[in-house]
């Protein structure tokens, strides 16, 4: 289920958005395709951080300085309105299924950080490695500490999943490893046309290249444990609302939605086949060197991961793993209809190529990208690498994921877009610490892991300050000058101008990385000031998005892009404003101020108005539970908004006001759920909330580091430190319920201790 949630995706949202934009463009008179590809759902990430180019100094492909106005040539005449409606219905049908939450909501996608530093760049001369995977924050924690020892054969310690054999992330006597999600595109949706067919076991056939192909039924039976009868394991069949069979299009996969006209949507996914991940981890646990590790990765088929590796011999390495299918059209060097990150035409031209040249230990029956072409680097020339779910090769930095060729021909396609913020900040910190011949220590690695600086604020705050300066200039537009003369806006910008972009809670009840071993301390004045600035900026971000791209798209009644893609688009607009004037390649203006004719003044008016709107929001009745309708900026402490919410696997929310299962709650802001912690949107210490938040509880979050790890690869063995967001028991009365939570909240760690108990090998 973990592997599924990390790799399965539905191409419904982008398809619905693209068609909606194109339809609106035809009605209103703009280029809907350009609005999607160039202006709003941009592939180019927020920062230029790219794992291998940064690690080797080879450089990545820089983003185009201005929009070209050229959207991809698309052929969508085959895509039927019924398909779009089926797609919408399916999303609504699965919306409340927890296991599919990350599939339909891009804001809930899992993430992770990892990086490694070669010995020549470290204070001790030993290689260092760090990793923190991000999943939902639940109690008991997703990961479980495991230590396995077979004398003379195996001595491994780290984290795994309850019920799964072996250590999933950890260390043995010679190596240490971690992983982050690499969101390779391993799922395709197809529009199908079904027709009646008497010879088919299902009574249906699908149309492929004008011919009929039988649809195969797979019988389904569901049983549940009867409740209330006192009988253990009394399983009874469920019939109401359950289909009798799954309908399979053999060429593609199961049908997930079907209408009376025979239009259907099928889904193809690499995880539908028997795969070998458990064997991969058992081999990793025994690995002694790079070759052993690479051999083990040949068995990692589903779950698409970036692996970080380090060993006691001083090697560091980055590898991508997972089986990536080759598409028929891309291998021919073109795109048939829509690219793979949209619903595709199932009637021909978009197939996964049947396997002809199987790769070592290959699992799925399709041609896959050879391991030699997967992103990887061993002992990079710069002596370090970083991955935070960002682009490993830099192929998407120019806003086009389909313009890189494979060595033997065809298009090299990994994914339509990547995270660009956390890796950008980690890369920035590594470069800063190594500048001028500096060295990185274990404590530096832990400090990077605990970093709560907002990278997007580093980009946008200078534009806010510049807007204020422009409002004070002689001859400034009257509307702009009035905004710049607002005392509240002026006071807020004065705070932003002195801000270091960090996000401390600023309250005594808040947990910060500056606190030690779970013990709270009074915030310093500097922390309070930075906390207030973090609140002001985060509220501004929400209103700036609302007043620019969101306002335009909402007026057109079309879907909004994911937040990080919108922030990338806004960065592009501001940094290229002299050329774009706030207009996208589509011709749509995102900085609308009807009373202001000068483009630069419109930009600054929107920036300052968004700040005024943010202050009004923070002092409103809606935020009174946090700030008591105060207009005093000093009251806007970040910890009153930014709160982590844990959930129990039985469904209860944890650590809310009042007692939990009879236990006293953790310190919290009176009347508000959750626990106040530092961090913010896409900070390295993952604590991402809704970037569009506009309610007092909208800045809460429920996912983050499920494990933190830093390892030092000493010649005499691996020394590791780790942490867990809670405990290993789900029983509130157990001493292991939350025993590790407090040090996790303050970014402290415990030692990773291999098992040394004198047990017999067969007991392991």
Main features:
764 residues, alpha+beta, eight-stranded mixed β-sheet, seven-stranded antiparallel β-sheet, 18% strand, globular, disordered C terminus
Q: Please mark out the parts with pLDDT under 50 across 5 or more consecutive residues, or reply none.
A: 60-69, 655-664, 759-764
* Largest sheet report: 8 strands, mixed
SS summary, helix count = 21
Averaged pLDDT: 92
Q: Write down the overall geometry.
A: globular
Radius of gyration: 27 Å
- Strand % is 15-25%
Structural class: alpha+beta
- What's the N-to-C terminus distance? 25 Å
The counted number of beta strands is 28
Give a structural overview.
The protein is α+β, with helices and mostly antiparallel strands. Helices cover 27% and strands 18% of the residues. The strands form 6 sheets. Strands 8, 9, 10, 11, 14, 15, 16 and 19 form an 8-stranded mixed beta sheet that branches. A hairpin with a 2-residue loop joins strand 9 and strand 10 (211-214). The radius of gyration is 27 Å and the shape is globular. The model is unreliable at 60-69, 655-664 and 759-764 (pLDDT under 50).
């Amino acid at each position: 289920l973990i592997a599924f949630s990390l790799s399965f995706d539905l191409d419904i949202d982008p398809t619905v958005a693209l068609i909606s934009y194109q339809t609106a463009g035809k009605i209103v008179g703009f280029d809907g395709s350009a609005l999607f590809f160039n202006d709003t759902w941009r592939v180019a990430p927020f920062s230029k951080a790219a794992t291998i180019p940064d690690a080797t100094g080879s450089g990545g492909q820089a983003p185009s300085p201005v929009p070209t106005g050229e959207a991809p040539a698309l052929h969508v005449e085959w895509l039927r309105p019924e398909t779009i409606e089926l797609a919408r219905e399916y999303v609504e049908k699965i919306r409340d299924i927890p296991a599919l939450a990350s599939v339909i909501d891009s804001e809930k996608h899992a993430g992770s950080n990892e990086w490694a530093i070669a010995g020549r760049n470290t204070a001790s001369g030993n290689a260092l490695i760090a990793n923190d995977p991000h999943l939902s924050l639940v109690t008991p924690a997703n990961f479980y500490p495991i230590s396995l020892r077979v004398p003379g054969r195996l001595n491994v310690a780290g984290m795994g999943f309850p019920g799964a054999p072996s250590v999933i992330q950890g260390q043995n006597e010679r190596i240490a490893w971690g992983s982050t999600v690499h969101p390779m595109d391993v799922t395709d949706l197809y529009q199908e046309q079904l027709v009646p067919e008497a010879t088919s076991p299902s009574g249906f056939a699908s149309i492929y290249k004008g011919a009929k192909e039988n649809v195969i039924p797979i019988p389904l039976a569901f049983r549940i444990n009867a409740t209330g009868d006192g009988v253990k394991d009394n399983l009874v069949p469920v019939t109401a609302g359950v289909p009798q069979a799954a309908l399979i299009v053999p060429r593609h996969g199961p049908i997930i939605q079907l209408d009376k006209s025979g239009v259907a949507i099928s889904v193809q996914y690499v995880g539908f086949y028997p795969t070998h991940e458990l064997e991969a981890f058992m081999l990793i646990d025994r690995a002694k060197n790079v070759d052993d590790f690479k051999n083990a990765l040949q068995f990692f088929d589903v779950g698409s991961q970036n692996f970080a590796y380090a060993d006691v011999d001083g090697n560091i390495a980055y590898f991508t793993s997972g089986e990536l299918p080759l598409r028929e059209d891309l291998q021919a060097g073109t795109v048939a209809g829509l690219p793979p990150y949209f619903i595709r035409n199932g009637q021909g031209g978009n197939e996964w190529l049947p396997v002809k040249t199987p790769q070592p230990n290959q699992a799925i029956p399709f041609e896959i990208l050879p391991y030699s072409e997967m992103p990887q680097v061993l002992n990079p020339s710069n002596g370090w690498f970083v991955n935070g779910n960002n682009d490993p090769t830099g192929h998407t930095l120019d806003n086009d994921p389909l313009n890189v060729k494979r060595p033997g021909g065809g298009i090299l396609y990994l994914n339509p877009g990547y995270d660009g913020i956390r890796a950008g900040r980690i890369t920035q910190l590594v470069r800063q610490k190594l500048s001028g011949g500096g060295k990185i220590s274990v404590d530096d690695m832990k400090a990077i892991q605990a970093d709560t600086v907002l990278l997007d604020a580093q980009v946008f705050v200078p534009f806010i300050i510049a807007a204020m300066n422009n409002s004070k200039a002689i001859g400034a537009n009257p509307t702009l000058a009035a905004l710049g003369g607002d005392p509240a806006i002026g006071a807020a910008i004065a705070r932003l101008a002195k801000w270091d972009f960090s996000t401390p809670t600023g309250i005594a009840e808040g947990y910060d990385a500056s606190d030690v071993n779970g013990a709270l301390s009074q915030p310093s004045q500097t922390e309070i000031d930075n906390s207030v600035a973090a609140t002001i900026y985060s509220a501004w971000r929400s209103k700036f998005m609302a007043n620019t791209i969101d306002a335009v798209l909402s007026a057109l009644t079309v879907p909004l892009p994911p937040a990080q893609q919108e922030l990338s688009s806004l960065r592009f607009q501001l940094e290229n404003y002299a050329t774009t004037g706030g207009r996208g390649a589509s011709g749509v203006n995102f900085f609308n101020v009807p009373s202001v004719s000068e483009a630069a003044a419109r930009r600054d008016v929107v920036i300052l108005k968004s700040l005024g709107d943010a202050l009004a929001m923070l002092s409103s009745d809606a935020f009174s539970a946090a700030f008591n309708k105060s207009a005093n900026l000093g009251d806007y402490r970040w910890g009153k908004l930014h709160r982590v919410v844990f959930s129990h696997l039985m469904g209860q929310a944890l650590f809310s006001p009042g007692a939990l299962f009879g236990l006293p709650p953790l310190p919290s802001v009176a009347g508000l759920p959750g626990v106040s912690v530092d961090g913010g949107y896409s900070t390295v210490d993952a604590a991402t909330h809704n970037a569009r938040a506009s309610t007092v509880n909208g800045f809460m979050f429920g996912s983050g580091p499920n494990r933190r790890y830093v390892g030092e690869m000493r010649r005499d063995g691996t020394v590791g430190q780790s942490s867990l967001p809670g405990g290993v028991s789900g029983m509130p009365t157990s001493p292991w319920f939350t025993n590790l939570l407090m040090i996790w909240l303050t970014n402290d760690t415990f030692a990773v201790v291999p098992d040394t108990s004198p047990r017999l090998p067969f007991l392991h």
